[in-house]
Design brief:
Domain IclR-ED (chains A, B): 68-251
Strand content of chain A: 15-25%
Order of helices and strands of chain A: HHHEEHHEEEHHHEEEH
Helix content of chain A: 40-55%
GO molecular function, one term (chains A, B): DNA-binding transcription factor activity
Number of strands of chain A: 8
Protein name (chains A, B): IclR family transcriptional regulator
CATH architecture of the largest domain in chain A: 2-Layer Sandwich
Largest interface: A-B, 68 and 68 residues
CATH topology of the largest domain in chain A: Beta-Lactamase
Organism (chains A, B): Azorhizobium oxalatiphilum
Low-confidence stretches of chain A: none
Largest sheet of chain A: 6 strands, antiparallel
CATH class of the largest domain in chain A: Alpha Beta
Oligomer: homodimer
CATH superfamily of the largest domain in chain A: GAF domain
Domain HTH iclR-type (chains A, B): 7-67
Number of helices of chain A: 9
Chain lengths: 251, 251
DNA sequence: CTGAGTTGTGCGATATTTGAACAAATATCG
DNA sequence: CGATATTTGTTCAAATATCGCACAACTCAG
């Protein structure tokens, strides 16, 4: 890409907006400068611009994002067919099994939730469209990684920080590779409290009409409600049904 | 605000991102230029920058947003206490009454959904956090407008396009003012298919510890399931309970 | 009252926006 | 169907705005 085809101000402003996500609700200019690596003067200008446009609020000391930023995510959700198409299926599935159902896509080394029907909260973190989890230790992430060409899959693992999140987390690379091979083989992934204690989940890939994996579908349940080993038998048939139903609808 | 404290490139880029929301999933450079009023060259630079940063995808002809933009909305949702606090209450409420429950705030002349627990789809439009509806004809909007100082409330109505969305929509200004006065009086608003045929809803304001109205809570139901006139009796007690529970928790 | 930390400001150097002109692609019409 | 018209995408140099630094004003704690 040509040097002159890049709008630096936009890139910096987006850096600033993302930086709001990690930290306290209110950020001062200096904190923002620190968090983004931008010059203080630049961070200040970006923040003032966001405030002027109504994306942020400034009380003279702290800046915070306003609900207006939701417009941006909404600009994606409302015109992209995939989330809209999935949502009713997730709701039906969620109701049928009495557990939360979600769909996500792979972005870099993380899965991004694009639709979700929640039944009850079992995770400490609140998952909404836009939430992100490390791919290597989430059920949908495993499914999506397993669908990648070997080379890309390994590249993602290389970039990931394989750190145990619970005592059950598989972190050894050989274990992970074996697990991913098994996932590719059997067409589904099961996670037993690897991401968060007390949470099990099962995921399958969603293919488009040409057979390319474009998203993943999962059901999450409290470990207290069901043993992870029973999840395939209990949930897979329904999930496969949704998978088959959606396939011809995806372009 | 000082002229030099404004980053034009950021403002233009955000205009571009929002413009994706209204239209087809894929936008050409010329369409974007048209939609934003930016010069074609500028629109192109913004789009290429977004593509370079991974917020958009470019196939040589059409640009479309990627799920990465969800990060931005998520930056708001994940650090703002209000949506997080509300979500579990909405889910409990939704489950208890078997209908969808939502929360929203006022932004300009629109309500923005900040949290939602959906039970089944009754509206043709898919509501998610970030969705917007005109305040004057939505139940939560009426509640939030009624809480505004008279002057601001009138200003919002002046800016709104009072167009009937269904045969039931109240559009006459005197009717609306009388309705808003009643809403302020009784502390709740009921909408009977004014926004969409077949949809009824009831909303109440959510106050913070100091009594300021900061958001609204609603329950939406198909007109087939319940007569709008029965909603207060059936749903208000539970909603008031949530309202009272939340009030001391809101800063 | 000091001093560390933070915020606001002015300015030269640098990078970006602009608008028109050109090239490529697509649509229109005889 | 081919030629012309129209739209679209791209390039370039001049005009303009931004960047980051250094410094001043301010705030808050000890």
């Amino acid at each position: 890409m040509k040097q002159t085809d890049f709008v630096g101000g936009l890139a910096k402003g987006l850096r600033v907006m993302e930086a709001f996500g990690s930290g306290q609700p209110g950020m001062t200019i200096a904190q923002m400068s620190e968090a983004t690596g931008l010059d203080r003067a630049t961070a200040r200008r970006c923040l003032l611009t966001l405030a002027e446009l109504g994306y942020a609020h400034y009380d003279g000391k702290h800046f915070e994002l306003t609900p207006k930023v939701l417009r941006l995510g909404h600009a994606y959700l409302s015109v992209t067919p995939l989330p809209q198409l999935l949502q009713p299926h997730l709701e039906a599935l969620s109701k049928e099994v009495g557990q939360s159902a979600s769909a996500s896509v792979l972005e870099g080394s993380e899965v991004v939730y694009i639709a979700r029907a929640s039944q009850k909260r079992v995770m400490s973190i609140n998952l909404v469209p836009g939430s992100r989890l490390p791919a290597w230790c989430a059920s949908m992430g495993r499914v999506l990684l397993a669908a990648l060409p070997q080379e890309q899959m390994l590249a993602v693992l290389d970039r990931s920080e394989l750190r145990p999140l619970t005592p059950h987390t598989k972190v050894a690379r050989p274990d992970l590779l074996a697990e991913l091979a098994r996932v590719r083989e059997q067409g589904y992934a099961v996670i037993d409290q690897e991401l968060e204690l007390g949470l099990c989940s099962i995921a399958i890939p969603l293919m488009d009409a040409r057979g390319r994996v474009i998203a993943a579908l999962n059901i999450g349940a409290p470990a207290a409600a069901i043993d992870a080993r029973d999840m395939p038998e209990r949930y897979l048939p329904l999930m496969r049904h949704v998978q088959a139903e959606l396939r011809p609808l995806l372009p």
